[in-house]
Amino acid sequence: MSAQSAATATANERVKTLTLDSTQLYLTALNSTTSTLSFPPIPSSFPPSNFIPHTRFLIDSFRHPFTAFSASYFLSHFHSDQYFGLCPSWSKGIIFCSHLTSLLLIQTLKIPPRFVFALPLNDPVLVDGCEVILIDANHCPGSVQLLFKVPTKNGIFERYVHTGDFRYCNSMKLISYLIGFVGCDAIFLDTTYCDPKCIFPSQEESIDYVVSVVGRIGKEFGKRRVLFLIATYVAGKEKILVEVARRCKTKICVDGRKMEILRVLGYGDGEVFTEDESESDVHVVGWSVLGETWPYFRPNFVIMEEVMVEKGYEKVVGFVPTGWTYEVKRNKFAVQTKDTFEIHLVPCIEHSNYDELKEYVKFLKPKKVIPTVAMDFEKLESKHADKLRKHFDGLIDEMDNKKDLLMGFHRGNCETVEKVERDANEERVMERNKNMFEIKTVESYDMDVSSNDVSYVHKPDSQDSTIPSEEERERIIEETRDSLPRWVTRDQILDLVGSSRWNIVEAVSNFYEHEIEFYEQVSVFRTFESASHASSPNSPILLSNSGHFRSSTDENVNTNLSLVSKSPSLKFTRWTNISPSKRKKNTEKRSNKKVKSNSTLESSGSKQPTITSFFSKLLPDDSKGGKTDRKY
């Protein structure tokens, strides 16, 4: 009995929404008399990009042969890097997928039908109490994006979008179900081409190019004189083939395995594709026949010559439709030639390019972006994953993350957190109306630690607070630093905690109210610094062996940041963080040099720690300027 049949009774009873229980479907598929199943906990080492939080839904993850963690498996599309691990003996759980993908699994991979369950497109289904919706991914036939609405505590739902592999297009903004996921809790994003260099042309433009080359050269040479070779996967690039056949009025020759896939997809009538080589001068070949694409394209003219001689042609023209061969040059479509051979590198991509990824994230405005393609994406907080997420800073729901941050402090005293945030907001509104913040600094390095008249600057009309001990100040600074983006300088952190009277919650709240101004400070300073180096190429770079700035650069960094701070309308009161003993040592090192009053804070040169748990943020970067380790 198939998994599809096991749900027939439930399907007949439903009014609007199909309701499924993956455990019962699985037990039915196993012909088991047991009514319940137990699974071991999903290990912490399990790739976070492959399962949905608060569920046991595993996405494109069939590679764990020894232990089954779930009965609910989802396959986004029929490409080998997604279905790797599936075989005719599969029996570890139910595979939910689109109708086309289910046919490919059953007819091509010979997966037992009882373990495959096809879900409808654009129609909500309840699986294990969670609402699941499949929408088109514009990648390959049968590919889908997966939308999950997961119930949590107190009747609250969390929403997740898993793109699988996809190519974004503007029509996706019109999908009503997807619109309902704007502001979702996280998007599991296909970051295959998440690199500013990857701004390749649209699929339509690339297809037009292939059609024009085939038409032009074919007309010039005539039939049976020039052979066209188009490299494809077993499943994929069908759009190119169909358009070449339609617009060039020719059939496309494919091998038996490709024809088997095409029959499943509905192209088995013989009008477009054929297995008879004599019927067409346009042949589909395997991906590596024309050359190697990684890490850069290396043509294989030797094989092309062998094919030409064997089949009796005078010229061979090849097409390699992939983004890995894409190079930003004067021409969008590169051509490599030798003798009577041509290879056209055509960026006809079935993944979203860099601009499209940013546009999609901007549209959905999720709380978090989880990369699904990266060198070490199994580690959600890895440097590479963190680097990928930075491309979307400013496009995610930063206010929601700010709330999470504030609630993370003093978890046992929620009322205090809310009161501090409310008071801080009221105070900031009054200060903005007055349009002034004062910056004052301690002017002397020689204050004694036991002195009773230690000077610090406070806001007008504010109550004086007791300055924390040096150890306590460092603890507050580090705790604040962990809650802010890594680009925030130490000086800026000192401004924040000083102006908020060393209240961490208020300091973090202040930052996110003025994040743009803070980032402009840093950006302008970096521009200023770059210009300074450019104008003085022989000036030494004062770096220590460890790569951190020497203390002798503190004055320059702070002076320039002070100058920068005059440009944006952001000024906070600040306390010096340098202890009396350190001031004395610094004074001796400087050999009685006079230091400007606004240069007393430490440099931001030391490395910032890794941001924790999704809170890495930057302003939007519209610059267009790699590559990940998955296929096209």
TrEMBL record:
Protein's UniProt name: DNA repair metallo-beta-lactamase domain-containing protein
Superkingdom of origin: Eukaryota
A Pfam family that the UniProt record links to this protein: DRMBL
Organism: Gossypium arboreum (Tree cotton)
Signal peptide: none
Annotated Polar residues bias: 597-608
Entry keywords, A to Z: DNA damage, DNA repair, Nucleus
Subcellular location as annotated: Nucleus
CDD domains the record matches: SNM1A-1C-like_MBL-fold
Broad class of where this protein is predominantly found: nucleus
Composition skew (Basic residues), residue ranges: 581-596
Lineage: Eukaryota, Viridiplantae, Streptophyta, Embryophyta, Tracheophyta
Record-annotated DNA repair metallo-beta-lactamase domain positions: 271-375
Disordered, as annotated region: 453-473, 575-608
Assigned protein family: Belongs to the DNA repair metallo-beta-lactamase (DRMBL) family.
